[in-house]
Amino acid sequence: MKSKRQSEILRIIAEQDIETQEQMLESLRACGILATQATISRDIKELNLVKQPTGAGTYKYVVAQNKQPHHNFAGRLRNIFKEGVTSFDVAQNIVVVKTMPGLASAAGAALDGMDIDGFVGSLAGDDTVIIIMRTNHLAEEFCREMAAMLD
Question: Which positions fall inside the Arginine repressor C-terminal domain (predicted)?
Fold first, then answer.
């Protein structure tokens, strides 16, 4: 159901100027797909949709053209890491990041939203994030970038 709904969302935004999540819900209902606003919000994030000006003084949802590069830890990730990371280490293709208590989940969520080369996923506890990278080399490269950013 999720993949069908998300495919339909992509079709709808390609054919219509959808400005709000409520308009998205109405368009989905017209296609026989029922969803909640919270579900649509998650879909928008997962599909990497952003609002773009239409030129008529309104906005519409479109698929973002490019994600933030992995080497640019701007915004929330930079803040979380600079303020909250206490240490990190690499063991083959796994990176272990230690944070201040309570910040690991935020760090993991920020990482999950980035477009990091070789990033497979993360698992966060209270003060530790386990990051799985595709290769040992990419894990080491990621640690070098974190070290440079934290200096």
Answer: 81-146
